Amino acid sequence: MIEIRKKLKTIFGYDSFRPLQEEVITKIVAKEDALVIMPTGGGKSLCYQIPALVFEGLTIVLSPLISLMKDQVEQLTQLGVDAVVLNSSLLPEEYAHNFNKVKTNQAKLLYLAPESLFKEDIQWLLKAVQLDCITVDEAHCISEWGHDFRKEYRMLGALREKFSSAVCVALTATATPRVQDDIIKNLKLVNAKKFVASFDRKNLFLQVMPKLDPFSQTAEFLNEHKNQSGIIYCFSRRQVDELHENLSRIGFSTKPYHAGLGDGERAANQDLFSNDKVDIIIATIAFGMGINKSNVRFVIHYDLPKNLESYYQEIGRSGRDGVRADCLLLFSNSDTAKINYFINQKEDAAERHSAKVHLEAMVRYAEFDDCRRKPLITYFGETYSQSNCGMCDNCITEAKESEDITVAAQKFFSAVKRTGEIFGAGYVIDVLAGSENEKILRNGHQKLSVYGVGKEYTKVQWKQIFTQLLNKKYITRDVEFGSLKLAASASDVLFNNEKVFGRAEAKVRSSAKRLMIKEDYNEELFEMLRQKRRQIAESRNIPPYVVFSDRTLIEMAKEFPNDEFQLSKISGIGEKKIKTYGAIFLSIIKRYSDRTNITSNKPPVKTKISGAKRYIEVAEAFNKNNSIAAIAQNMNVKKETIIKHLYDYVQKKNKLNPQLLLSEIELKKEIQENIFAEFRSEGVGSLSVVKEKFGEEVTYDDLHILRIMFLNNQS
Question: Which stretches within 560-654 are classed as H helix?
Fold first, then answer.
């Protein structure tokens, strides 16, 4: 575990694991199979990347999309990890180069598509090396019960048997309990433990709006997110092209993405989006699977998704850096009818029924009038008991007082019953409204006693009333045909004077109040850092988020690090990135601080140490046999703050207890002496030079303590 945690910090730049990551990694390193269900942005990749660095042999990662493989390899390369990809997108010389790196044991991770796996050269290669880990990403594709079944995934069970000494880990962001069991069975996982992380992405703001004027609603939303990166999902290619054309015409930076475009144009548009040269990608569901762009700030569903799995996966492509992202769904019954039409074209009855069940769950979510996380998270088998998430439209909308809608409920129930319980909500509402449409007249329903008795409400209000009655389970809706039937509880309302309370608002919200969660960072400095990130990315031909995530830049613009040690404490900055980019970003922060006289965006922390003698008080506490960690806890500051005070103390030729300093590190004496020799020859100004020479043998924390020891000995 010491080695695992060291790699987490030195390579990936994180001080701690996210929920379940450490347990999963421990299981995999022990060569025990695992199924990992984590939401998009929850840190799945780290679960196999760290074991790959611990294992002596090769880890293969099976992934369905070329774009995903390219993205992952770029990010790992920036971290100093030897990772390669072998797929059809490579030039022959690139393929041969990567192939040879695997063959000569230079690569730790190999990314492959499932269909490439059984090619003769790949099979030969895997037999020629020590294969320690088989990783199956997007593992839900192996299940016919999943929303994205792919036949080529079914071959992977044979691979598991062929390389039985390798550990196998399956990962996905979306899998119902039934799909989870199917993955274990088809992959032939041995005694696999399930790790199911919470599906609650707390930084995603969930919002559903009635689809009244979708183009205007979208433009209004985009005006609130100017210069931000986002994705708009549409149902059809035609809709994608039209929306791209219309939004571009009024000044928004967009590109289309769908299967009707040529491979080259699709790839070019995706690269423009990944590299922040285009703000918005407008796409069908063909876009985004496995995209690892961390700074997507919003996702709009212009049309209703076919199922909650797709919806959850698509909104999960936003906010992967942990910063707030907004997810807007425009919902109309016509979208439901459109999806149903295509479902009805399916020849297989079981497939048709499964698609209807999925669609029904999606519609229930869109119509839900309580916290949106409840139906979304419980759908994936997780209990969600929070009453108000504070991050969805329903939870932040001012609660309207419920009114007695018993009479309206009785009218609706009567209309459902008298029309024979074979029609959908739209038809029943038309009857109540006294509509003269052809179908009602043909059925003779204009003669019913309930015909036209609901004119006191608009159709919009009746739709709201129906939704509440459905959510309260007074009515059930047939999955196959959408027809309504009365539940037993409706009889109590009709005949036993049971009251029904709800709302029938005269106006439908065209937009939801946005709950602004303002990050506490210096926005001017953040923008300067962001521009420098873009310049670096362009010069290196890599996406900006591969250099640093928005979250990392936000922390820089909050903490104002002024040396490599402080920079190493920023989330997402490991040793390779300090060496590659540290000086560049530190110089920007220093110039900004000098110009503005601002040195931090944090509010002052009240501690027991104050004034010019802080370092003396810290040193006195240390010399009284208190550890650095204990002093930090007692004074309510970070550990690195205490180390900085001790450094200031010895710089002024003061003396610390050398034995106490020695107890703060666990390095072998030989390594300590070698580092002291480096200090004597190179000085103590830059630790990155020393760190580069000693690699993973030492951490930056070790080096800072050793530097204090070195200066302490000199004094």
Answer: 564-568, 575-596, 614-623, 628-635, 639-651
Q: Considering just the CA atoms, what is the radius of gyration of the chain in Å?
A: 30
In 3D, which of 545, 89, 608, 638 has the Cα closest to residue 273? 545
**If DSSP codes are grouped into helix, strand and coil, which group holds residue 229?**
strand
Beta bridge partners of 229: 296
What letter represents residue 559's amino acid?
E
Roughly how many angstroms between the first and final C-alpha of the chain, as a whole number? Answer: 37
Q: Compute how many other C-beta atoms are within 10 angstroms of the C-beta atom of residue 428.
A: 27
Give pLDDT tens digits for 43-69.
889 999 999 999 999 999 998 877 778
Higher pLDDT, 694 or 310: 310
Angle at 315 between CA 235 and CA 197, to 5 degrees: 135
Find the helix or strand (DSSP H, E) in which 428 lies: helix 425-433
pTM attached to this predicted model: 0.67
Domain spans of the chain, in order of start? 2-196, 204-393, 403-502, 523-596, 614-714
Q: Using an 8 Å Cβ cutoff, are 257 and 283 in contact?
A: yes
Alpha helices, DSSP H, located in 30-106: 44-54, 66-78, 92-103
Lowest mean per-residue pLDDT among 112-116, 189-193, 449-453, 505-509: 505-509
CA dist., res. 103 & res. 110, Å (int): 11
pLDDT over threshold 60, residue 146: no
Rounded CA separation 329/301 (Å): 5
* 149/421: higher pLDDT: 421
Q: Which amino acid is at 63?
A: S
Using alpha carbons, select from 210, 206, 199, 50 the residue that is nearest to residue 135: 50
For residue 77, give the nearest of 580, 696, 567 by alpha carbon. Answer: 580
Percent helix, strand and coil across the chain, each to the nearest 5: 50, 10, 40
For domain 403-502, which architecture applies? Orthogonal Bundle (1.10)
Measured at the alpha carbon of residue 78, what is the angle toward residues 72 and 83, in degrees to the nearest 5? 50
Q: Which amino acid is at 384?
A: Y
Give the CA angle between residues 93, 94, 95 to the nearest 5°: 90
CB 292 within 8 A of CB 67: no
Angle at 272 between CA 271 and CA 277, to 5 degrees: 145
Q: Do domains 2-196 and 204-393 have the same CATH topology?
A: yes
Residue pointed to by tokens 């490439």:
116
Q: What is the dotted CATH code of the domain comprising 614-714? A: 1.10.10.1390
pLDDT tens for residues 113-139? 888 888 899 999 999 999 999 999 888
Whether domain 523-596 has CATH 2.40.10.10: the reply is: no
CATH number at 2-196? 3.40.50.300
The whole-angstrom separation of Cα 553 and Cα 567 is 11
* 369 Ramachandran zone, left/alpha/beta (phi>0; psi -120 to 50): alpha
Give me the CATH code for the 204-393 domain, please. 3.40.50.300
648-685, pLDDT tens digit by residue?
A: 888 888 888 888 888 888 788 888 888 888 888 777 77
Cβ density class 236-255: b for 16+ within 10 Å, e for less: ebebbbebbeebeeeebbbb
Query: How far is it, in rounded angstroms, from Cα 280 to Cα 297?
Result: 10
| 3-state secondary structure at position 367 | helix
What is the four-CA torsion angle of 450, 453, 458, 461, rounded to 10 degrees? -60
Phi/psi at 446 (5° precision): -70, -10
